[in-house]
Amino acid sequence: MPGLPIEGHRTHSIGWLRAAVLGANDGIVSTASLILGVAAANAGPGAVLVAGVAGLVAGAMSMAAGEYVSVSSQSDTERADIAREREELATDATHETAELAGIYVQRGNLGFGFGHEATLRVAEPSCRNVQHAPASGCGTSAR
Fold this sequence. Notes:
Layout: H1 15-40, H2 45-91, H3 93-107, H4 116-128, H5 137-142
Helix pairs in contact: 1-2, 2-3, 3-4
């Protein structure tokens, strides 16, 4: 609708913040626990320092590897979903166009006074041009 201000919500793209907070909390708790455990064993200050630094390095490497595997797995899954949507589009374009139109209406992208036929007309180019713009039709269906 013309005249309405566009709001910039970022809740769909702040997964990194959740990961950072969780990682920082995990790092602080595990390193503090390690240092307290070594200090409680009556170790000297040098041993406590070495244990703390070793715990920080090991924790950082562990979190980095875990994040890499997590992001890689998500990326692989998204690529597989898009490939499946492409295959379905190649074998049953009519059904996929109707599915995409339904997704548009469900998400509120269309449907403000648009009928079913108009929504299909908007979805059809996305499905036709998926080879040139894979994030359009197939990406929407996969997500």
